[in-house]
Specification:
Layout (H helix, E strand, L loop, with lengths): L12 E2 L8 E2 L3 E5 L12 E7 L4 E5 L4 E3 L4 E8 L3 E8 L8 E4 L3 E5 L4 E9 L2 E7 L4 E2 L6 E7 L15 E2 L3 E7 L8 E2 L13 E9 L6 E6 L4 E7 L5 E3 L3 E2 L2 E6 L11 E3 L6 E2 L12 E5 L18 E5 L14 H13 L4 E5 L2 H6 L2 H7 L5 E4 L8 H9 L7 E6 L14 H5 L5 H4 L9 H12 L7 H6 L40 H17 L2 E6 L2 E2 L9 H14 L3 E2 L7 E2 L13 H27 L1
Parallel strand pairs: 4-11, 12-18, 20-23, 21-24, 23-25, 24-26, 26-27, 28-29, 28-30, 30-31, 31-33, 32-34
Antiparallel strand pairs: 1-4, 2-5, 3-11, 4-6, 5-7, 7-10, 8-9, 8-11, 12-14, 13-15, 16-17, 16-18, 19-20, 22-23
Helix pairs in contact: 3-11, 4-9
Length: 617
């Protein structure tokens, strides 16, 4: 569990009538409060600068005292090597819910009323999220705000608080957080990533769904799950939010056929539920959106049989993550996409692929060797992650003028397959956001895979988010552009082969795979994003003995014929001797990575030159 910050402010000091008002503190603030009783027109408005502990200093050329209305006052903040400035706040400190005024260390304002200023500082390796219960309350304190601290040594962006009893709102279910109290801002899943500026105070507001009254449901008691199962429904609400209790006991699941044919468009499943039986919500023709937690023990595609309109699913966390190492989890790659699109307006090249891309691509070297000015990101993850999905995730961040490079492995999942695997949920356990960015209706085994993932982690031990993120930090296994920092030695054996026997054939691609790939390319084209395909490295020992050069050429020709994308590399040039692989027929060693990246740069430069020629014509 993340710890809650006990923020900043310890002692109050006020610089008197000295010309320089200085104070050391973690929190200083300015507040435009109501005019005090001692203020009068003939004496003007009071200005006061306040601060606490020793993380920073604040000062002004204006001493504390009364000033004429309209007086311009400038305040300043300074801090040491181990601290950072947060903001100036109005009325009180951050801890005491002062209103953020400015994030600029030097701030000028015009005195319009009695004014009290607080400056807020933090340690340079931490940042804060301020949660507003937004109608509910913070369980531990009864307040409507909660501070949460996270370490910048672990995070590029924080995970929002999982639904572990931090907030409560009787008759409502927490379904997410928003940057605006009315829900008009950026929405984030419960326990998902909040892609906000960590140099500022991240303010998030709880988003609540009012539970549908229990009188519209029928219930049967389950002794297996020790609670009530929803067995029927007679309402016609547009949003159905399953209640969390009935007759003072928990609602634990939804039974087969319980909401068959319901007219709802949105369904909210609270974190208390354990089981969603098959055909619970079948034939719901208008259902488009589902909110569901990872506290379930069972859910399946059949739970939503024939729900043809279902497109958006928000998976939320009711537990801490469990899959901790870099090989199992790749949420850091999503963070990198978000980071660079916020960090720079320069064009970005997002390179997508499986573990072969994760191992084989040196993003910095490629960036140095190519002729176009792209910031290159290695976003290779796991070959089980569908390219159709990962490209949709990338589209969440890609902008006009950016580039997507598809570095495809020779597999069903990387060449247009739409059958989900549970590894995708494992790979992005702490970043469930990504699954709400895709059209769930185009994938098969979607909820089945989620259920397999839940089963696989059921007996695992919860970790803290800090333990979890420490294995994924940018100063850990990946650098800031996604290049793997683990340097692996080559196997060194001419006989090395891990059994990934491959024969290239156009039979790999079914017509629906071609359709979905081309649909993705069309979307990229509409966005003004450049896109191309390259081949991943492959151990020559993995080829079947009857593999021929002609078959490989036919395979390339087939891809070129049916796919609306430019293939920039040659398949045979990406088949390498086994000595430069180390633990898999797709995984290059450090030496192999340099060879492959250099070759890829040459292919890209030829591609860029051809684009320039086309533009000139």
């Amino acid at each position: 569990m993340k710890k809650t910050v006990r923020v900043l402010i310890i002692a109050l000091t006020v610089a008197g009538l000295a010309l320089l008002c200085a104070c050391s503190g973690a929190a200083l603030a300015i507040s435009f409060g109501a005019k005090s009783e001692t203020s009068a027109v003939d004496t003007g408005y009071i200005f006061s600068l306040r601060c606490e502990d020793d993380q920073g200093n604040v000062y002004s050329a204006n001493s504390e005292g009364y000033y004429e209305p309209g007086t311009e006052i400038t305040i300043h903040a300074t801090w040491g090597d181990d601290a950072a400035f947060y903001c100036w706040t109005l009325g009180d400190t951050l801890e005491n819910r002062g209103t953020v005024l400015s994030y600029d260390k030097d701030y000028t304002f015009t005195l319009e009323e009695d004014t009290y200023i607080y400056g807020n500082f933090r340690s340079d390796d931490t940042a804060l999220v301020l949660y507003h219960a937004n109608g509910g309350t913070v369980v531990e304190t009864g307040n409507d705000t909660l501070w949460d601290e996270f370490s910048l040594a672990y995070y590029l962006y924080p995970n929002t608080l999982a639904d572990m009893g931090y907030f409560e709102y009787e008759g409502y279910t927490l379904i997410g957080y928003n940057t605006e109290p009315d829900g008009s801002g950026e929405f984030y899943n419960v326990g998902g990533k909040a892609f906000e500026d960590t140099d500022e105070v991240i303010e998030l507001y709880c988003v609540w769904s009012e539970q549908t009254p229990s009188r519209y449901f029928s219930f049967d008691y389950s002794y297996d799950y020790e609670g009530w199962m929803v067995s029927g429904y007679v309402g016609d609400f547009d949003e159905v939010s399953i209640p969390t209790t009935f007759n003072g006991e928990p609602v634990v699941g939804v039974a087969e056929g319980a909401l068959t044919g319901a007219e709802m468009t949105t369904l909210v499943l609270p974190s208390c539920l354990q089981v969603i039986e098959d055909y619970s919500f079948n034939e719901c023709a208008n259902l488009t959106t589902v909110y569901v937690y990872d506290s379930l023990t069972y859910i399946s595609d059949d739970s939503f049989d024939n729900d043809e309109s279902l497109t958006t699913v928000y998976f939320s966390a009711a537990t801490n993550p469990k899959f901790s190492n870099w090989f199992n989890n790749h949420s850091k790659k999503v963070e990198l996409m978000a980071y660079w699109t916020q960090e720079t307006d320069d064009p970005i090249m997002i390179c997508l692929g499986g573990s072969s891309t994760a191992y084989a691509l040196d993003a910095q070297l490629l960036q140095e060797l190519i002729d176009e000015d792209y910031i290159v990101l290695n976003c290779g993850s796991n070959g089980a992650n569908l390219f159709n999905m990962t490209s949709e995730w990338a589209m969440h961040f890609l902008r006009e003028g950016d580039m997507l490079l598809q570095i495809t492995e020779y597999s069903f999942w990387q060449l247009g397959g739409v059958q989900c695997r549970w590894e995708s949920f494992r790979s992005f356990e702490s970043c469930y956001n990504v699954f709400s960015w895709v059209d769930a209706g185009q994938y098969t085994e979607f909820f089945n895979s989620f259920c397999t993932y839940l089963t696989s982690r059921a007996s695992m031990t919860d970790m803290t988010y800090e333990d979890y993120q420490s294995t994924l930090a940018p100063n850990g296994y990946y650098d800031i552009q996604g290049t793997l920092k683990i340097i692996a030695k080559a196997n060194g054996s001419a006989d090395f082969h891990t059994g990934r026997s491959i024969y290239f054939s156009g039979d790999w691609l079914y017509s629906y795979m071609v359709y979905y790939l081309n649909r993705q390319y069309s979307r990229l084209d509409d966005m003004g994003v450049t896109y191309a395909m390259a081949f991943t490295p492959l151990n020559e020992n993995s080829l079947y003995s009857y593999q021929t050069d002609e078959a490989m050429e036919d395979f390339e020709d087939y891809l070129d014929e049916v796919l609306n994308i430019t293939i920039i590399s040659d398949l045979q040039e990406n088949i390498f001797e086994p000595e430069i692989f180390f633990d898999d027929d797709y995984h290059l060693s450090a030496d192999g990575r340099e060879i492959y990246t250099t070759q890829l740069a040459e292919d890209l430069n030829e591609y860029f030159a051809s684009l320039s020629e086309e533009a000139a014509d």
